[in-house]
Design goal:
This protein is α+β, with helices and mostly antiparallel strands. It has one domain: 2-Layer Sandwich (HIT family, subunit A), CATH 3.30.428. It is 24% helix and 20% strand. The chain has a 5-stranded antiparallel β-sheet with strand order 1-2-3-5-4. A hairpin with an 8-residue loop joins strand 2 and strand 3. It is globular and about 40 Å long. The two termini are 14 Å apart. Bound molecules: zinc ion (ZN).
């Protein structure tokens, strides 16, 4: 994740918000509608406990901002916040909306590492969701040159 840069759009997803040290990326893999990662883009850390208080405030407040937009846009029954990092030890948080139709109601969502072989959300759907999320969070890549 440290080496991936800060693209607005790549094979994994579409960036829907950025702050100085965080990116939120709506995922292309069709795993769950609205599945989004918040990725720490500051110096390399694996655990949130390695952040300073100031960095942690930026990170977790951004997780909340992105979460609120996901809730407003997708209207899930519940949102799950998963900071795992077992297969990829760089700080990131999976935001997983849970709906009435769900593979494992009442239990953790069965997330697997994304390897590029997953079916994809149709691109027009993903683009339109990304645009709606960017608007809700008032973040627009064309006016944010500082986070590339
Ligand atoms: Zn890293």
């Amino acid at each position: 994740m440290c080496e991936s840069g800060r693209p607005d759009d790549d094979k994994y997803g579409i960036r829907v918000r950025a702050t100085k040290n965080t990116d939120a990326v709506l995922q292309r893999a069709n795993i769950q509608q609205g599945y989004t990662l918040v990725i720490w883009r500051g110096r390399h850390v694996a655990e949130p406990t390695e952040l300073t208080d100031e960095e942690a405030a930026e990170y977790w407040l951004d997780v909340l901002t992105v979460s609120r937009a996901l809730i407003q846009h997708y209207r899930p029954l519940k949102l799950n916040y998963e900071t795992l990092g077992n297969s990829l030890p760089h700080l990131h948080t999976h935001l997983v909306p849970r709906y009435l139709k769900d593979p494992t109601p009442g239990r953790p969502f069965p997330l697997l590492p994304v390897d590029g072989s997953e079916p994809l959300v149709p691109d027009d759907q993903l683009q339109s969701d990304a645009e709606a999320l960017r608007s809700l969070m008032n973040w627009h890549p064309e006016v944010d040159q500082a986070t590339r």
